[in-house]
Structure formats: structure tokens, C-alpha cells
């Protein structure tokens, strides 16, 4: 069982929740830019949240399904269609064999995620399915997907053909996810102070909190370059190269900022003035070049509470989706 790429998108790769524990080798964790959307995509189709998904940027690919299967699309809205019929996001959909998934237009967001029931049948590299393009490992042979690639997926445990109505190309299953809280106030990004926050002048700290910053077009999965009023340290300092993470905000020598993203380097020598809170990384990942960011100062306890609430939400969603699928199998 598999699907094939009829036409590749801008950058289609296989990702999971990342390759952790190898930073001492200089290997970035990588993984999905929007880990929330990736996890939800898996849970909707009954997978473990650690399963691999396809991360899709616009313009997206055209995909031919070679078998009846259950899919979910989460994240950005690229107007997904099956044989030119619109299908919903954030909801499981049974698709018929020999139908084509297409993403004809960009409505909002930076990247979406495609999961299939049972997961993709791929080999792990360093305990992860995620594609590391620089190392040429993980995912689908370490590469972005191209025309003619046939991605196998694991055998279905449910007879999906029985859920399809006669002559229908797909069938939407009756449960979906409410994402209002996860992406509420999309341009407001919470942060906690970084190790070098106190090295900023008082005026610079005010500018950081009060001004908007625009995402530069040269931004990518490694980092978002931000354009705004130049910032400065109170006095010049020499820093030892130190560990950085997904969401670290660094101050560059030219006074501009960079927010490190999923494919960030493992260490850096620029001042780490802030860290985007984990619960707001999905919002950050869905912003696009020319979008603006307003940073909001938060304390560690508030950031932790948001993350705990997110994890509880995902746990409830996992149990609920499995119950729904089991009910369908019993029927």
C-alpha cells in the first residue's frame, strides 16, 4: 500500500517530533515545525502521536492514493481537495483508491501536515523518521519528496472501503478538533527572558516589547530572520558558544534578531535574549514571510501551565479518537 507523488510541492518532507539526544554530535533535533498540528494529524487517524507525517509547504504536491485509506490534514489551509472536491482540515477523511489529493490555493498559514492511518513504512535514523536535509538522512532517503516517489504505509487495520458511499471519492468522519486556543492571537508570541536578557539596555528591552518585527523572506526551517528597529546590548561583551534550542531568539551583530526554528544549529555564540515558550511554537511555525510578530513577556510558571494544558488536551484527544475508531470497527 502506498501513495505516489504526481507533482511535488515547494518542500515536502517526512517529519516526526524530532531527533533528540544527539546534540553533542552536532545533530539538530529537526522534526515538525508545528509539533501540535503534527501530533493532532496522527491522533485523528488513530496513530501514536510520535508517528511520521508529511510536512507540506505551499505550493503543495499532488498525491495519488493507490489504496483506500484514512487520512487527516492539519495546520495551514491550502484548500485541500480530493478529485477537485474540497475536504476539511482537522478532521479524519476516508479517501478512495485512485483519487488525487491537491492543494490549489493558499488561504492562511505556513505549513500543513498529512497523516495516514497506520503511519508511513520507513526506517528510522537515530531514533527518528524526521528528514535531515543537510545530513541526507531520515525520512524518504534523506530527501524532499519528488515526482514519482511512492511512499509505502503500514497495512490498514480497518476495512475503509466499507465506510465509503457508492460513487463517493471520500467520506468525512464525524469528529474534528477545535484549534481556537492553540492558534489564538496568531501574531502574539509569548517568551521568557533568555540568558543574556539583562545585558540589553533598558531602552532596548522596551523596544523589544513594544515594537513589531517582520519575518524576512529569507527565513526557513533553520531560523526566522526578523526585521525591526535595531536593538543593542548595554555594553559589548564576548560570549562563549552555548547551547540553543527551537525558539531561542538571538541578537545579531547588526542589531536584528533571528528566531531559531526546528532545524536550528545545536550551539550559537550570539546573545540569547529570549526563548519562545513551547506552547506558542505552533503559532510561530504558521507565520509566513512578511507576517509580523509581537513578543509578549511571560513568566516561567505561566509558560509551564500552558504547556501542561496542551498536553492534557492531546491526551484527551487521543483517547477520544481511538474510542471513535473502535466504535466504527465494532459497527
From TrEMBL:
Domain Carboxyltransferase intervals: 24-313
Keywords: ATP-binding, Hydrolase, Nucleotide-binding
Listed SUPFAM superfamilies: Cyclophilin-like
GO terms assigned for molecular function: ATP binding; hydrolase activity
Keyword Cell division belongs to the record: no
PANTHER family xrefs: 5-OXOPROLINASE SUBUNIT C (PTHR43309:SF5)
Protein name according to UniProt: KipI antagonist
The species this protein was found in: Puia dinghuensis
Lineage: Bacteria, Pseudomonadati, Bacteroidota, Chitinophagia, Chitinophagales
